[in-house]
Design brief:
22% of the residues lie in helices and 18% in strands. The strands form five sheets. A seven-stranded mixed β-sheet has the order 10-11-12-9-15-18-19, with helices on both faces. Strands 13-14-16-17 form a four-stranded mixed β-sheet. Helix 5 packs across helix 10. It is globular. The protein binds 2-acetamido-2-deoxy-beta-D-glucopyranose (8 copies). One 2-acetamido-2-deoxy-beta-D-glucopyranose binds next to helix 2 and helix 4. InterPro entries: TBL, TBL_C, TBL_N.
């Protein structure tokens, strides 16, 4: 795989300067507002020692009226093959390092000029610079990243079915035959701040020597697989990523721990639909399934000691899946003859929060709780012919969050009363636009597809929306340590 790294330039102001300077036969690197830096986790140089700059047309400047389309074919690219025309393969480690760091290297209104011996950042003459600075967006730490919009981004997806071996059948829409791939090309853009792009290397460095643990239902498996895929793009030797017990990801098995050997970290997933313990109890003469809303899931001993914990639970708290609450919820030896879902959910969340307060050391561990991800069934529910197949693009507006919102409110209240700080990962609103991004019929291989009527409008195709949830997780880790 050729790894290449490029920047595109969109300002006409810059062009005049660029052209002038090119004629003096010097090498240029141009950066603009951080958001325009076209860099991507999977697109970084493969060698650390040598940095060569080559001039070949790669970026086109679209919104330029001053420059002819030919002239606008200006390139500023860095590549690691010896370029023909630049006798100077510039070795500028300091620059490389800063440039790779990406985010806040060069400001708006600045241009970098580099030759073999020196690098200079210069201010661009600008008449509206002051105005632009006033509008400058907030730092990520003081901005509500849930407010924003989905924008088309040609550098998305961050990985493909071919570059990630961890996508299981249920989320492998492309492998299962989905042909329209526009849904993979959207990036969430917060309205009030510039969010740095996801940088897999940086994420791996942040979790070096640590355990990143996802605990929850299959939607958290969705997010966990996405995280594996995103991180995998920064790994040079695929053999150095492996499941510690050689387990293959399937829907059935629930405990996985993938080790990224070069970073001595693990990215783990424990399935537990309710966070609290599913079990059995004798009711009358029969043993029946119950849910212990006063006790944690049996795998909880395994989550202890994690450095980052990402919890979720939501979808299973429905009347259907909880036997309508009749003889289902259990506390101690008592089985509630009938209990409504909200009350049971609240009790379970309190059980969970006590466990966290008791077992998690906030100095060591960061805890996240991901909000409910919306489903998008039309014309029925998941078990009654609901569908979402027709959707090829995101909704342009969203409606009041349904069922899941009630649970979000309960979670919010429980979090407020906790001793341990827990960061809510609020994905509900932004995911609600993405009716286009569910597997629908492509959650199963064509040969296993029994009926077009069964559609999955709850989980998410990978690559896809869970990549954004992980991007938010990354932003939190990056800025609120
Ligand atoms: C090298 O430069 C010459 C003259 O500037 C140009 O004609 C030629 O196309 C360039 N070659 C490459 C590979 O860019
Ligand atoms: C990604 O992060 C690594 C490690 O912090 C850094 O060296 C690299 O330059 C970054 N890449 C980009 C494209 O910002
Ligand atoms: C590189 O740029 C510096 C400052 O702009 C200049 O003094 C120097 O002569 C240049 N070196 C070469 C080899 O062009
Ligand atoms: C990726 O999806 C395409 C269909 O779009 C398929 O031909 C290819 O085999 C898939 N690759 C993998 C590795 O599953
Ligand atoms: C996919 O996106 C491209 C480019 O934005 C657009 O031309 C095309 O119509 C879109 N396809 C669908 C099915 O929306
Ligand atoms: C997951 O771990 C729990 C706790 O150690 C264990 O009881 C359970 O059998 C494991 N499940 C699987 C599928 O390995
Ligand atoms: C959203 O899209 C629908 C149909 O695609 C259109 O009728 C409606 O006016 C749009 N709403 C907004 C707010 O753009
Ligand atoms: C989550 O984000 C949505 C959309 O911005 C917002 O409406 C909702 O109130 C947020 N929920 C919480 C708990 O912050």
């Amino acid at each position: 795989m050729e790894r290449q790294w490029s920047f595109s330039v969109k300002s006409t102001r810059a062009l005049a300067l660029i052209i002038t300077t090119i004629s003096s036969a010097i090498v240029f690197l141009t950066f603009f507002s951080n958001s325009l830096i076209r860099s991507n986790s999977s697109l970084y140089p493969t060698t650390d020692s040598n940095f060569q700059i080559d001039l070949s047309p790669i970026a086109s400047i679209s919104d330029s009226s001053l420059v002819s389309s030919r002239a606008s074919q200006i390139l500023v690219s860095t590549r690691f093959n010896p370029p023909e025309n630049t006798s100077g393969s510039a070795k500028i480690p300091g620059f490389e390092q800063k440039a790779r760091g990406g985010e806040s290297f060069v400001k708006e209104d600045q241009v970098i000029i580099a030759n073999l011996t020196s690098i200079k950042v210069i201010e661009l003459p600008s008449n509206n610079g002051d105005e632009e600075k006033k509008k400058k967006k907030k730092g990520i730490e003081e901005c509500d990243v849930t407010k924003g919009k989905w924008v088309h981004d040609d550098e998305y997806p961050l990985y493909t079915n071919a570059s990630c071996p961890f996508i299981d059948e249920g989320f492998g829409c492309q492998t299962n035959g989905r042909l329209d791939l526009n849904y993979t090309k959207f990036r969430w853009e917060p309205r009030d701040c510039d969010a740095p792009r996801f940088n897999a290397t940086r994420m791996l460095e942040m979790i070096r020597g640590k355990r990143l643990v996802f605990v929850g239902d299959s939607i958290n498996r969705n997010q966990w697989e996405s995280m594996l895929c995103m991180l995998f793009q920064a790994v040079k030797d695929p053999k150095k990523v492996y499941e510690t017990h050689n387990r293959r990801i399937t829907k059935e098995k629930g405990n996985y721990s993938f080790r990224f050997a070069d970073y001595k970290c693990t990215v783990e997933f424990y399935v537990t639909h309710f966070l609290v313990r599913e079990g059995r109890a004798k009711i009358g003469k029969k043993r029946r399934e119950t849910l212990r809303i006063d006790a944690m899931d049996r795998t909880s001993s395994r989550w202890k000691g994690a450095d980052i914990l990402v919890f979720n639970t939501a979808h299973w708290w429905s009347h259907y899946k909880t036997k309508s609450g009749i003889n289902y919820y259990q506390e101690g030896n008592e089985i509630h003859p009938k209990l409504d879902v909200s009350t049971a959910f609240k009790k379970a969340m309190q059980t969970w929060s006590s466990w966290v307060d008791k077992n998690v050391d906030p100095k060591k561990t960061r805890v996240f709780f991901r909000s409910a991800a919306p489903s998008h069934f039309s014309g029925g529910q998941w078990n009654s012919g609901g569908h979402c197949r027709e959707a090829k693009k995101p909704l342009n507006q969203t409606f009041k969050l349904s069922d899941s919102a009630g649970k979000n409110t309960i979670v919010e209240e429980v979090l407020k009363q906790m001793k341990t700080p827990v960061t809510p990962l609020n994905v509900s609103g932004l995911s609600q636009y993405r009716i286009d991004a569910h597997p629908s019929i492509y959650g199963v291989k064509p040969e296993n597809r029994r009926s077009q009527a069964v559609q999955d409008c709850s989980h998410w195709c990978l690559p896809g929306v869970p990549d954004t949830w992980n991007h938010l997780l990354y932003l939190h880790l990056l800025h609120k340590r």
